Amino acid sequence: MERMQRISVRRGKSEYGAQVRRGRLGADSFVRRLRLAVLPALVLLLATLLLPGCGKEEIPEGSSAIYYLSSDETHLETHYRQMTNVDPEARLAQLLSYLGMMPERLEYKAPLSMGFTLNSYSLDDGWVTLDFSVEYRYLTPAQEVLVRAAIVRTLVQEPGIGKVLFLVEGEPLQDALGGPVGWMDAGTFISNDGNEINTYEEVKVSLYFANEEGTGIIMAYREKFYPTSMPLERFVVEEMIKGPSGQIPGLYPTVNPETTIIGVSTRDGVCYVNLDEKFLTTIGNCSTEISVYSIVNSLTDLDSVDKVQILIGGEVPQTFTATTFERNDALVTTLQQ
User: Fold this and answer.
1) Scanning 136, 231, 313, 327, which has the fewest C-beta atoms within 10 Å of its C-beta?
2) Contact call for residues 179 and 10 (beta carbons, < 8 A)
3) What single-letter DSSP state applies at residue 28?
4) Beta carbons within 10 angstroms of residue 144's beta carbon
């Protein structure tokens, strides 16, 4: 999610109002109506851990990965379940059923059996909307992140599902700042490859994208979960390469999306960003100066960074006007200007 300073980006209910093929989980569904007997103590740190349940094992044929909460509610576990349906809507119903199945020995917890009810769901052209009962709001921050990650990860692995939206009693789920969480996809919860256990935190960073003319850069906030094993500076550069989310009209990408990160490190307040040569191929109306300072300003908004050195294949390009760059507020503009 991105937010502009002085510019409201809250989306009205009309964006979420058109729901088609709305389904309801019947009495024979595995989605259970449970009530919390005792609310857990407030969790101060928002953390989610992803444990690849089967490591390097092969995925059983005809099965899908279902994500569950660990018994101590500190991380996610992966368990494989056999899929018997072919139709996309039938497969969605089966995945939701699995997400509500509690194991007999309670060695892990099903995300849809955490004290709230899945009131209804719908699938429309690959976009899934889930509407939960008001008890969803009783989850602690850590529980909510884990539940959301487990459900979204499970659903978006399906070829016919691209995005997931959470509603609570028909209203868009809101984040800690009171804004809508919005549509989530495979990129909402970032994971590193391999068997490494990653702790996830929600971070709010400021990113600078180009105006329509490509003559200035506009700051927008982005909130996202990222693994703390990844340097925050690298996360910022990755998000700059991904470009604007599209939630705010008037923001344009500044970095060639085909750019590959070779490495990002920070020493003594200087962030060294090593990219491949595709970075030098500008896009849209952006000049190299705009591309450079969009990254520089984004990184220097972090407490750990005072200056930025951008390398191409480990070398400073001769076309650059400096070897290291400090932030340039003269290029910063707003949508109103």
Assistant:
1) 313
2) yes
3) T
4) 22
Q: What is the pTM of this model?
A: 0.53
pLDDT tens-place values along the chain, 337 residues long: 554 432 222 223 222 232 333 343 433 333 333 333 333 333 333 333 444 444 445 667 889 999 999 888 878 889 999 999 889 999 999 999 999 998 887 889 999 999 999 999 999 999 999 999 999 999 987 788 889 989 999 999 999 899 999 999 999 998 765 678 899 987 777 644 433 334 567 788 999 999 999 999 999 999 887 776 778 999 999 999 999 988 889 999 999 999 999 999 999 999 999 999 999 999 999 999 999 999 999 999 999 999 999 999 999 999 998 999 999 999 999 887 6
CA 134 to CA 112: how far, in whole Å?
14
Nearest one of 196, 97, 107, 90 to 151, comparing CA atoms? 97
Please count the other Cβ atoms lying within 10 Å of the Cβ belonging to residue 271. Answer: 27
Q: Which two tokens stand for residue 5?
A: 């300073």
- The residue ranges of every structural domain in the chain are 2-172, 231-333
The closest of 229, 227, 228, 259 to 242, measured between CA atoms, is 259
SS3 assignment for 286-300: CCHHHHHHHHHHHHH
For tokens 């990408």, name the residue: 253
Cα within 13 Å of Cα(154), Cβ side: 32
